[in-house]
Amino acid sequence: MKKYLIVALALLAIACSQDKEPKVMARAVPERADDFVFENNLIAGRFYGKALEGNPTSPGIDIWVKLPGALVANDWYKNAVEGGDASYYHKDHGGKDCYKVAVSLGGGASVPYVGESLCYPATNYRSSEVLKESADELSFVLHYPEWQAGELKVSLDKKVTVYADSYFCKVEDSYNFDADSLTIAAGIFRHNEAETIEAEAFGEDYYAIWEKASDQSVEPEDGMIGVAVIMPGADCVTLVDGGRHGACLKKIARGETVEYWFGSCWSKGEIIGASVWFDLAANL
Fold this sequence. Notes:
This protein is mainly beta. The chain has helices at about 1-20, 75-85, 275-280, and strands spanning about 25-30, 35-40, 45, 60-65, 95, 105-115, 115-120, 125-135, 135-150, 150-165, 170-175, 180-190, 195-200, 205-210, 225-230, 235-240, 245-255, 255-265. The protein has one domain: Beta-galactosidase, Chain A, domain 5. The strands form three sheets. The protein has an eight-stranded antiparallel sheet with strand order 8-9-10-11-18-15-14-13, covered by helices on one side. The chain is globular, with a radius of gyration of 19 Å. Residues about 1-15 have low confidence and may be disordered.
């Protein structure tokens, strides 16, 4: 009797999980320039795909600010495509895209760091896979083809895990290269300091920033954005690229995976000040 009860409870748990309203989402978006979008009930963002190469070719994470609650990315894409309004994302619909990436690490990407230079991929991500998907957790992999990093040729399989109710996503980057070691930089783009940066914080394993919206070309934004990258076991945390990025650096051996976290927030949501955001980054 006890055995049947355990089985019944397990089946009930599965059924409840299947009926649960999802708090996470991620997918390739071929209808909109090969974006790959990810989202939970607190944050959203995207990676650039093949159709956007040259405009820009960048591994940088593009942050979309949003109010806590519902998933919104699919509706934003649908309304932009069906309405023919390319600037739809830059207008406030309970959130928007007001973060400028250009050719940078954006809100928490990583690249090889060779000779004190960030070595960006020659392409955007070219293929993707969703590995695991439930109502509260989702993971996906983006594949970046081989490119030159100093004297080495490298390629990247980037695994990202999105968790419900969290401002942070976990990254597991698998760099393929033929050498004993390679230094990796995971970091945050520092926009024009005089115009955007209100505060920033460094720790042994994290860099965090609190800044004004960097892209106000369509609709002015009076809120603030918090961005952070956390790398347990980092060799150092410092400014790189002539001060354009704050980054966590780590030397890895061939075959070793780089693990770190990136996150973001919007001052119009639950986190309204730099000190709260920096505390979250320091205590993840």
